[in-house]
Amino acid sequence: xxxxxxxxxxxxxxxxxxxxxxxxxxxxxxxxxxxxxxxxxxxxxxxxxxxxxxxxxxxxxxxxxxxxxxxxxxxxxxxxxxxxxxxxxxxxxxxxxxxxxxxxxxxxxxxxxxxxxxxxxxxxxxxxxxxxxxxxxxxxxxxxxxxxxx
Length: 150
Description:
It is built from 2 helices and 8 strands, in the order βββαβββαββ. The chain is an alpha/beta fold. β6, α2 and β7 form a beta-alpha-beta unit. The longest helix is centred in the last third of the chain and has 18 residues.
């Protein structure tokens, strides 16, 4: 699993031009899933996100986790995180998992995140047309790939 995590003061997603879901302070997490990913990757990643200390303490140092600051999560599926641009100018998404694998693993990941952030997780909709708006705080943007966790 590959994510791009952004610390935000607020964020929202508009789904298919109809529905808005929003959060306050916390993380926007763009999630890409590949065929090699497993439930263990989802568990590891949810734990990493919950304990990642990138929120400021009273001295301005990044010492607090999203849990410490009662943060919220907005989790968006993003297959394009696995784009390959090695050949030509049109990206290939061959590494991205197909929906029959990606959807259940995405949903499993969301549930693992909800264990750490009860009632504080919003999501996009897998495969929908989404417009994401956010205010990146810092800015703090971190990329994590479970295939490179060791």
